[in-house]
Design brief:
alpha+beta; 2 domains; 8 strands; about 170 residues; eight-stranded antiparallel beta sheet; single chain; Immunoglobulin-like
């Protein structure tokens, strides 16, 4: 009669150790800091109909002391708090430890989003055209080639001024 209780005790011990090890592995992946991502360039691509395509070049900066193997990226570009374009890329790349890489993403925008943005900007800048701004926000997810599916992503957000990107400061 004592043997079944001991066996159940071992099962509980093995289960507990397995859970602790699995939890330890899961926390190792969350200690990775998300790359810093900035918009380097936007180039229009040939488009048709009510949709416009852009090639965005993003600079990814790895603040970690280990390389990051990228599987892809999903991002959204907002200008003056209006979503303008969304894009994805499944281009594999290695972001070196404490290094940078330029990463291309094709983004798509509808003409109606541009019309809404133009109306908002004209309304906001009607009284003071000198205060014209093109503030952008780029946010999304970087998908890692390594790790558990569903937990292999890092979220990012970047902000800036498109006018400074287009026209360098004097």
């Amino acid at each position: 009669m004592l043997f079944p209780l001991v066996r159940h005790g071992w099962v509980a011990t093995v289960f507990t150790l397995t859970a602790l090890l699995a939890g330890g592995c899961a926390t190792m992946t969350t200690s990775l800091e998300a790359p810093r991502i900035s918009l380097v360039n936007i180039m229009a691509e040939p488009s048709e109909g009510m949709e416009t395509a852009f090639q965005m070049e993003l600079r990814l900066i790895n603040p970690n002391d280990v390389p990051i193997n990228l599987k892809g990226i999903d991002c959204r570009l907002e200008i003056n708090d209006s979503t303008i374009a969304s894009g994805v890329s499944n281009e594999a790349a290695e972001l070196p430890a404490l290094g940078t890489v330029i990463y291309p993403v094709t983004a798509y925008a509808s003409a109606s989003d541009f019309v809404i943005l133009m109306v908002r900007m004209m309304t906001a800048n009607r009284e003071s055209p000198d205060d014209f701004e093109l503030k952008f926000s780029l946010n999304g997810r970087v998908f890692l080639a390594d790790g558990v599916p569903g937990a292999n992503r890092l979220y990012f957000e970047s902000e800036g001024d498109l006018l400074r990107l287009i026209q360098p400061a004097d």
